[in-house]
């Protein structure tokens, strides 16, 4: 589904991604871990199409197409979804109206007819229960004044409504209380199928107990320096990152 | 420039001759005083502080023959009715090039509530109310206002009787037809809202054809004790319209006045909104929104003058400037020595969509009383990139994302509109502008 080859990206004069290689197949769950500032969110943003970052090398193939060639909205319509680490607040735009516009533009792209108000509300209700989100949030301005946890839940709710093929969840677990973490993880699991894939960026093993990854990667200093199965996450949890830094040091 | 002044003074002399039968009437005396004032002031020049960023005189001199007088339009009923927007039942008045179109207008409210007379006839028939008010309140320190008083012979006098809640809003269509030469005209509207009465007034300004025009418009609005008035202006002229609009409001005790100004188009539009709170316990709201593109220049000057204690005023003006459009916002708040316990707030926010668009914004607070609460704030920025990305990352096109964010920006003003059909009409105008 996704083939990232030697991807390099910079912002202003800072090289952040220094040759990322990653392959994600349909049905898989990948976890990306790594110390603060290593480039995890940057990778997620570049995949979603954020123009602040300049891609200086490498390629990204998504469902056989050149992902880097597409505008952010085209990527979303083709099924790429980024749950933001820091969802932005948009005063004056309600979550409902925003989601209806988004969903109908995606449907149009898929050649489906737009949903009328009634069927849209039905979809919304259904997906809301999936992440146990409070209805009152929907009529408020998007993310404005939402608590940290509410914002994260809203991201997964949007994911549920838009039904992406490739979901990238950037630290969706941080800021969630223990119950919320379970609810959100269950939501993600329910949306999983053999046709879609999930990339979760996280610092904590705990999330991975709920969303069990097929692969775990360590991103450090702009590169994926180690990959393994879910046991790698356990190892990182107990030992931290120093041993990996040392390993790299000894290779270099 | 002195040529223009000469032209205008000659125009007055000529106009005065046509007033035979009115010589010595109060309105004639007001005209004389006003033209004398104009003779002293002249049109605003490059050094006139109040017109520092709006070089109206220079452009008018180049583009408009101010010696002209607007001819009556030959537009058919159907052509005029194209300017109609969907609204509830209303008292509707049509003016084309300043001329009252009685055959198109319809008054629904009974005469016990509402008296409407076309100004041209009112002068001729020596109607006493008009004679008494004409030119009494308008601030003639603005030379365009002085010129309007001197030269106006068209418009409407609207009198809402006391203790009446007007059953229908009043909608005034002012259409400029540029298919006759260059229309230059001086409409004047006078609104007298009686004690304890309520009225909603909507004025829309539109243009037929792409020719040039100059409209020097003035209004006097008297809001009597405990009256409540909503006054909307929707300016949708053409790229070739020069317009000066002087609106003078005078509020008496316990009255409420809501002013709304929406500007979408024009070559140069200058709005002067002056509100005097001459008595205690008044409330005034001023809402403005300008959505500009092309080479349009819009200048909003507002003054709210707290003369007595215990009043409240609030102002929110917002602007979205695209392409090479330019704007000016100047908001004055005066709090006079007797105006203790005044609350006065003001905010002006702008979004510039291109590097070429500019805005000059200046709040001006002058406070002579000590027990007051006043605040002002102005911001000018671009569209928020993070917000744009968020919307696009959910599949929304760039154009739509932009429109969504700009509509949300405008919403602070729109949410204060109290008439549903006006709200819808503006949403429609804004939607069309942002999605074209
Ligand atoms: N706009 C920017 N200008 C300059 N540097 C930036 C910018 N955005 C990100 N960076 C830098 O890029 C590096 C990678 O940031 P990124 O957000 O991708 O890290 P991360 O791995 O997601 O970290 P965290 O675990 O803290 O979320 C950091 O050093 C950061 O300071
Ligand atoms: Mg991050």
> Helical content of chain A, roughly?
25-40%
Shape of chain B: globular
CATH class of chain A: Alpha Beta
β content of chain B, as a range?
35-45%
Rg result of chain B: 21 Å
Q: What is the helix fraction of residues of chain B, given as a range?
A: 10-25%
Q: How can the largest sheet of chain B be summarized? A: 10 strands, mixed
Structural class of chain B: alpha/beta
The stretches of 5 or more residues of chain A where confidence is low (pLDDT under 50) are none
Give the distance, in angstroms, between the N- and C-terminal Cα atoms of chain A: 32 Å
Under CATH, the homologous superfamily of chain A reads P-loop containing nucleotide triphosphate hydrolases
Fold topology:
The complex is a heterodimer of chains A (252) and B (436).
Chain A: E1 2-11, E2 14-24, E3 29-33, H1 40-48, E4 54-62, E5 65-66, H2 72-77, E6 80-83, E7 90-94, H3 95-109, H4 117-130, E8 141-142, H5 148-162, E9 166-170, H6 178-191, E10 197-201, H7 205-210, E11 215-220, E12 223-228, H8 230-239, H9 242-251
Parallel strand pairs in A: 3-10, 3-11, 6-9, 9-10
Antiparallel strand pairs in A: 1-2, 1-4, 4-5, 7-8, 11-12
Helix pairs in contact in A: 4-5, 5-6
Chain B: H1 2-17, H2 26-41, H3 56-63, H4 77-81, E1 91-96, E2 99-100, E3 114-118, H5 119-124, H6 128-133, H7 143-151, E4 154-160, E5 170-177, E6 184-185, E7 187-193, E8 198-208, E9 213-223, E10 228-236, E11 241-251, E12 256-265, E13 268-277, E14 283-292, E15 297-306, E16 312-321, E17 326-335, E18 343-352, E19 358-367, E20 373-381, H8 385-392, H9 398-414, H10 420-434
Parallel strand pairs in B: 1-5, 4-7, 5-8, 6-9, 7-9, 8-10, 9-11, 10-12, 11-13, 12-14, 13-15, 14-16, 15-17, 16-18, 17-19, 18-20
Antiparallel strand pairs in B: 1-2, 3-4
Helix pairs in contact in B: 2-7, 8-9, 9-10
The complex binds adenosine-5'-triphosphate and magnesium ion (MG).
